[in-house]
Amino acid sequence: MRQFVRFVDRLSDACAVAAAAMLVAATLIVCYMVVYRWLGNSTWWEIELATYLIVGAVLVGSPYCLKTRGHIGVDLVSEWLPPRGKRALSRILAVLGFAVCAYLAWEGLQLTLEAWHKNEHSGSMWNPPRWPFFALMPIGLGLTALQYVADFLRSDDAPAKVATVSGQGA
Prior knowledge:
Elements: H1 2-38, H2 46-67, H3 76-80, H4 83-118, H5 131-153
């Protein structure tokens, strides 16, 4: 069980790296687009790809955000609970989070396969296929569902090693 939790935690770390790379790429594309347009040229693929990358970064970065508790949470109720109650609430929320992410991953997979089979394209001037963009939903949310499983299985004495990235939890 510990090996599974460690594996999922490492996978979430890899997702963070992939999400960061997507954000860097989107930033560079937007900077390129601004300069290219400033020079009097017209753009046709840059904003669409940058948007896809930013949305992809959110979806793919979601498991790491869950692992590090980087999301916004309301902890008023949990602060009033004894340690055993906190653990029970944590497990209930992990089951609910898993269910939501698994459902959305499944629906995202159906959307991706439908776009693949119908050979859907965006309809823009660039007109890329839609399935790679849609595939980010089942990938990101499926991995987030796995992180919920890891959180559920994590023992009380082994909390996730959280790197403080922001002021959250500080």
